[in-house]
Write a structure and sequence with these properties.
By secondary structure, the protein is an all-alpha fold. The protein has helices at residues 17-47, 53-80, 89-95, 108-135, 139-163. It has a single domain (15-163), classed as Ferritin, core subunit, four-helix bundle (Ferritin). The chain is built from five helices and no strands.
Length: 174
């Protein structure tokens, strides 16, 4: 038996072993992408320049601190489901849909665009795991990832708004 699944028979929370494996393994992607987004956000926090420096520096810091807390909660949920959480950069890079930067974006606009894309990616991954968790009635995972999805959607909205890329639709009153 793989070390990854070594303690799973001891978990008796009402979700069978195969369903717990599936839920936990789906969550690994969210954990990995969250970690990669955390690193990218902190990298940009350290290196942002330009006329909006202070606001972006502060926004990036708030976002990477929130991600740091979330990463721990995600890993702990994976453990509660009975499998070993991934924890190496190699594992995260393999599991994540978010790639590390090979070079620093040339300006803050590139940084913000990359972060919008990253938050939207994690939101989509959360939605995917929520749908899988619904099939096995894993209410804890559903709740956790619904909250995570809301955080990522809000972060993407805030970043898009920084770029002036938020569409406003006005209904005609006629």
């Amino acid at each position: 038996m793989s070390l990854k699944y070594q303690d799973t028979k001891k978990v008796q929370t009402g979700i069978n072993q195969d369903e717990r494996y599936a839920a936990a393994e789906a969550m690994e992607r969210v954990l990995a992408s969250s970690y990669m987004l955390f690193l990218k956000t902190q990298y940009y926090h350290w290196n942002v320049v330009g006329s909006g420096f202070f606001q972006l520096h502060e926004l990036f810091e708030r976002q990477y601190r929130e991600l740091f807390e979330a990463i721990d909660e995600l890993a702990e949920r994976i453990r509660a489901l009975g499998i070993t959480a991934p924890g190496t950069f190699k594992e995260f890079a393999k599991l994540s849909d978010i790639q590390e930067d090979t070079t620093l974006p040339t300006d803050w606009v590139g940084m913000v665009r990359n972060l919008v894309e990253g938050h939207e990616t994690v939101a989509r991954e959360c939605r995917d795991v929520i749908n899988k968790a619904k099939l096995v009635e894993d209410e804890v995972t559903i709740d956790m990832l619904t909250q995570r999805m809301a955080v990522h959607e809000k972060a993407a909205w805030m970043l898009r708004s920084t770029l002036g890329q938020y569409a406003v639709v006005v209904k005609d009153n006629q």
